[in-house]
Amino acid sequence: MPGEGNPFARIFFVGEAPGATEDATGRPFVGRAGELLTRIIKAMGFSRKEVFIGNILKCRPPGNRTPTEEEQKTCFPYLERQIEIIKPDVLIALGRVAAVNLTGKKTSLSSMRGEVHHFRGIPVVVTYHPSYLLQRGEPKELKKLVWADMKLALRILNGEI
Ligand code: URA
After folding, report:
1. What total number of domains does the chain contain?
2. What is the pLDDT of residue 64?
3. For residues 76 and 56, what is the distance between their CA atoms, to the nearest angstrom?
């Protein structure tokens, strides 16, 4: 499942791996987490068609487990090439797996949030995975943090950072 979106996208969202629905349809983020991601994209003033949505893994790990390091390493060159071709102005890492791969830092997600990292010279903003928000019942405090992260990405796009 390679991902989908605008080949000239300014924003490239990177998730973890396709889930069951994504595997069945061949499209990224189409389940409940996808609905939430779509809402986030709209709140930023974009449509799904304007951005690009991909994942670290191109296949669904059995039972939706966290991808192994070997799986991540095996798939990463494909994402690297996608980023090279699309040349987005900002990468948004959704969750820790994407964040670790794009920042090269193996720390907690909360410690990676709030600052601008770089991947091959492209700014990277780290935020919580939409599935994590759903698991937690979309609490206001968490939504506020995600929105702060999206505002950081928008400031990058607007040339304010
Ligand atoms: N979760 C992800 O990380 N990626 C998808 O494509 C769907 C759910």
Report:
1. 1
2. 85
3. 6
- Distance from Cα 17 to the centre of ligand 1, integer Å: 5
pLDDT digits (tens, 9 = 90+) for 22-76: 988 999 999 999 999 999 999 999 999 999 999 999 999 998 899 999 999 999 9
Residues 6+ apart with CB under 8 A from 116: 123, 124, 125, 152, 156, 161
Q: Tell me the backbone φ, ψ of residue 121, rounded to 5 degrees.
A: 85, -5
Q: Kindly state if the Cβ of 18 falls inside 6 Å of ligand 1.
A: yes
Q: Is 28 in the pocket of ligand 1 (CB under 6 A)?
A: yes
* Predicted local confidence at residue 140, as pLDDT: 98
Beta carbon of 17 within 6 Å of any ligand 1 atom? yes
Mutate to test the pocket of ligand 1, among 22, 60, 82 (most ligand atoms within 8 A of CB): 22
Residue 122 sits in a domain whose CATH number is: 3.40.470.10
For residue 67, give its domain range. Answer: 4-157
* Contact of 10 with 88, CB cutoff 8 Å: yes
Q: Residue 55: CB within 6 Å of ligand 1?
A: yes
